[in-house]
From TrEMBL:
Domain spans labelled Legume lectin: 28-278
UniProt keyword annotation of Nucleotide-binding present: yes
Keyword annotations from UniProtKB, A to Z: ATP-binding, Cell membrane, Lectin, Membrane, Nucleotide-binding, Receptor, Signal, Transmembrane, Transmembrane helix
Family the UniProt entry places it in: In the C-terminal section; belongs to the protein kinase superfamily. Ser/Thr protein kinase family. Belongs to the leguminous lectin family.
Record has Nucleotide-binding as a keyword: yes
Subcellular locations according to the entry: Cell membrane
Name used for this protein in its record: (thale cress) hypothetical protein
GO molecular function annotations of the record: ATP binding; carbohydrate binding
SUPFAM superfamilies, per the entry: Concanavalin A-like lectins/glucanases
InterPro entries cross-referenced by the UniProt entry: ConA-like_dom_sf, Legume_lectin_dom, Leguminous_Lectin
Disordered as annotated region, ranges: 396-420
């Protein structure tokens, strides 16, 4: 009898120990205020590295490269019983930086990813973000979920995505859900768009609630100083239960492209939590993060030579202040930038007088073509020369104010009232 009791007691102890270990294994929490000294905890491949000051750099600005970085241990994200399978709740937050470029929009972006493996060696650069490739994109056997932070237009001939957006992707780089990058202002609940490629720290909160299958995503520049109350994306994502396997790796993938479409992608800090009823990723203390990389575009500044380069390559809209988001008319923006280039011409005698500027802005005259050597095209040169002589003479001879007032009124009614 005594021996039987001992056996029961031993079995009970083993059961309790087993239960404790299982509970520990199904709960994952970590926080990285920078990654210096944590190399053993981050599984990196491709272009990824940890810089000397502790930034996790997914890619540098080399063309056509891929970089991946995953937490070194798998995370248990699936609960199964005899009746159903449920994806466990999880929460993550991270702060990233994509330095702006003085010569291009950069590219291609990065993803936060749930993957069955940390080895994405078959993944392609450019629009495949270091996550998938042309052959397996869309396959149900991929078992990948990704939140993409996309900076370049062009997936599947541009029919699926626009640049500077955030998308929710299930086994594919074609987004099921996508939104322009923005946050909701707490004061008036207005959506404020901003640029991913800006060189400023940007924070992300991603929370998934298993019982309701609801995903909430909030993104905002850290200069805002607070987390917006309203998430940018709040959706039920039942597809996730078809994606997730028992254990998944959590991490990041990034890629660059060709022809100047390349950006460095950095993660400054990262926290994650899963398991329990309401896991909440630990708050990142910005004061403990490593310093951001230098933003070379800000040092160079927005100058006429750079805008001229963009005009010559057909990308003049890249010169627009990213803080405007998408709140401008592209036609008027092109016109204003073209006229601005004329007014900054290297040769003072080639700069149009104010009356000519007003006629350009009112579309009474076509803006002459400027080549990248700051010379007008042959057809424009002759036409412009005669008009400039006429308008300069007219400006000097006339003291009338009525025409200028009329032109200013027309500009105001077509542009200024609409906020441009």
């Amino acid at each position: 009898m005594g021996r039987a009791k001992s056996m029961v007691s031993l079995l009970l102890v083993l059961f309790l120990v087993r239960a404790h270990v299982a509970t520990t294994e199904t709960t994952t929490e970590f926080i990285f205020h920078g990654f210096k000294g944590n190399q053993s905890e981050i599984h990196m491949q491709g272009d990824s590295t940890i810089t000397s000051n502790g930034l996790l750099r997914l890619t540098d600005r080399n063309s056509d490269v891929v970089g991946t970085a995953f937490y070194h241990k798998p995370v248990r994200l699936l609960d199964s019983n005899s009746t159903n399978t449920t994806v466990r709740s999880f929460s993550t937050s991270f702060i990233f930086i994509i330095p702006s470029s003085s010569t291009s929009n950069g590219g291609f972006g990065f993803t936060f990813t749930l993957s069955p493996t940390p080895n994405r060696t078959d993944a392609d650069p450019e629009q495949y973000m270091g996550l998938l490739n042309e052959r397996n994109d869309g396959n149900s056997s991929n078992h990948v979920f990704a939140v993409e932070f996309d900076t370049v237009q062009g997936f599947k001939d541009g029919t699926n995505r626009i640049g500077n957006h955030i998308g929710l992707n299930f086994n594919s780089l074609s987004s099921d859900v996508q939104e322009p990058v923005a946050y909701f202002n707490n004061n008036d609940s207005q959506k404020e768009e901003f640029q991913l490629v800006s060189g400023e720290p940007i924070q992300v909160f991603l929370d998934y609630h298993g019982p309701t299958k609801t995903l909430n995503l909030t993104v905002y520049p850290t200069r805002l100083g607070y987390k917006p109350r309203i998430p940018l994306i709040s959706r039920e994502v039942p597809k996730l239960s078809d994606i997730v396997v028992d254990e998944m790796f959590v991490g990041f993938t990034a890629a660059t492209g060709r022809h100047g479409q390349s950006s460095a992608h950095y993660v400054m800090g990262w926290s994650f939590a899963s398991g329990g009823e309401h896991p909440l990723a630990a708050m990142l203390d910005i004061s403990q993060l490593p310093p951001p990389p230098p933003n070379k575009a800000k040092k160079r500044g927005y100058n006429a030579d750079w805008v001229m380069e963009l005009q010559a390559s057909g990308e003049i809209l890249s010169a627009i202040d990213p803080r405007l988001g998408s709140g401008y008319d592209e036609g008027e923006a092109r016109l204003a930038l073209a006229v601005g280039l004329l007014c900054c011409h290297h040769k003072p005698e080639s700069r149009p007088p104010m009356r000519m500027v007003l006629r350009y802005l009112n579309r009474d005259e076509d803006v002459p073509e400027i080549h990248d050597n700051w010379g007008y095209s042959d057809s424009s040169r002759t036409d412009l020369g005669s008009k400039l002589v006429g308008y300069i003479s007219s400006d000097r001879a006339s003291s009338s104010h009525s025409h200028t007032s009329s032109s200013l009124t027309r500009i105001s009614s077509t542009s200024l009232i609409s906020g441009r």
